[in-house]
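Let's study a protein:

===
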Amino acid sequence: MASIFGFRSRDPARDRQADISRLDRLARLFEQIAAEIEAERAGLESRYRKTATNAAFLVEAMENGSASDKRSSEVSALTKSILDCERRIAALSRQNGMMRELRPSLDMVFDGDEASDSARAVEFAKPAGAGRG
């Protein structure tokens, strides 16, 4: 049978180093995801502008009679593409906002652990019967 007196806890410095390592990995992952989101959004916005411009010129040409009305299906396809782009850009903006909100919460979780560890150490160091706060 194992004795409770044989139990040893890990060195708090080792625990802190493990926490810092995890925080660094998470922070890098968040930064990588945010960069992916931003790259997709930038590319999509560029294609969106080109598509909107093409649609505007095509509609104008149809109104002026320099393009046949048969090209209206092309206008419909461009319109659908523009709407799809707008939806995706909105989704990417929400994702980017979430990344901005999540990143500081990592610091709060890891800093919060350190603060609560300090509070427990202070509480533990109080003489018996001293009470709380």
Observations:
- The chain is about 80% helix and 0% strand.
- The chain has one domain: 25-119.
